[in-house]
Design a protein that fits this description.
It is found in: Cytoplasm. This protein has 326 residues and is an alpha+beta fold. The chain has ten helices and 18 strands.
């Protein structure tokens, strides 16, 4: 018998555009022999199902159900495809936990913690073969820029602590640039992370669990013409080259797979996550950048690229994710 799945898309941040594209990829590749899928749009104005032959039908938030032509539809599980709030920060996960409805992502606690880059780094610090760039976490109401200058070495990366898509992020090469970079980041968030710059090659790698076993996908190397992988580099065609699988030695590959599997376990992850990291020039040391607990699933996103490089069909991949989590 088919399971009834809600595919939740949209959101309340600027990342909703990517979310809609992610949901389109997922909807096209879910096995309809096993799952009956209802795509539900979440916006600031409400939560709606919009069938092709009808007007919008509002979701009953009391039990997360739909009533269509007098028939009540309840869901066996939810495929959450919302990047940013409220899909990635634990809010929806807490809601579904209270209703007892399973979902495809990390739980509420892990989702909330991993939205905070500083807290995440503190938790994963100490994992074997994992390095964390020296950093300071600043709070808008009480910070001193001089602490950065005395405790960290230039150049710095300055970034909103809870942001996504590299919005509000700057690379600071001289102390004269610091104040402007902090102002830019604080416009996006009340907490800002300032990190020492790591000179290295940038990679992104997907991890998921199937049949109780952690599986690491082939990595993607990111080469950008810009100073770093900023918003422009992420979303402007031709600025960035993405190579899947990325070029690593066998030793690096084995080490990276061990590190990211350990990160997945340490943070108690579920479903699909993506971990970004540097391999430092000259040393080859692994430096953790961040984790994304609801990575993009658009046709050109890293995860679909990596699934293809593994020789797996997206339909089989999504089936494994749904079977493991729902």
């Amino acid at each position: 018998m088919k399971k009834t799945i809600a595919l939740l898309t949209g959101g309340t941040t600027g990342e909703w555009v990517v979310s809609v594209k992610s949901a389109a990829t997922i909807a096209q590749n879910i096995d309809t022999k096993k799952y009956e899928v209802y795509k539900i749009m979440l916006t600031e104005n409400g939560w709606f199902y919009e069938p092709a032959d009808s007007v919008k039908i509002e979701v009953d938030k009391n039990d997360f159900s739909l009533t269509i032509k007098g028939k009540k539809i309840v869901f066996d599980g939810v495929f959450i495809a919302i990047h940013g709030s409220p899909g990635e920060d634990g809010k929806l996960q807490g809601y579904f936990d209270m209703l007892g409805i399973p979902y495809t992502t990390c739980n509420a606690l892990t989702s909330a913690i991993t939205m905070n880059k500083g807290y995440t780094k503190a938790i994963v610090d100490g994992i074997k073969n994992l390095n964390v760039a020296k950093s300071l976490q600043l709070f808008k109401e009480d910070y001193n820029a001089d602490d950065v200058k005395t405790q960290l070495k230039l150049p710095y990366f300055v970034k909103p602590n809870n942001g996504g898509s590299s919005i509000g992020m700057s690379k600071v090469k001289t102390v004269d640039e610091l104040d402007a970079a902090l102002d830019k980041a604080f416009k996006e968030d009340s907490q800002v992370l300032v990190e020492e710059f790591v000179e290295g090659r940038e990679f992104s790698i997907g991890v998921f669990k199937t049949k109780g076993k952690i599986v690491v996908l082939p990595t993607t190397e990111v080469k950008t013409k810009n100073e770093f992988f900023d918003f422009d580099a992420k979303y402007t065609p031709g600025v960035t080259e993405e190579i899947t699988p990325g070029d690593m030695t066998e030793e690096e590959k084995v080490r990276v797979e061990q590190v990211v599997a350990d990160v997945y376990q340490r943070l108690n992850c579920r479903g699909i996550v993506r971990i970004d990291y540097f391999l430092e020039h000259n040393t080859g040391n692994f430096y953790f950048i961040e984790i994304n607990t609801i990575p993009g699933q658009t046709a050109t996103s890293f995860i679909p690229q990596q699934v293809a490089a593994m020789g797996m069909k997206l339909q089989d991949f999504y089936t494994q994710v749904l079977e493991e989590t729902i």
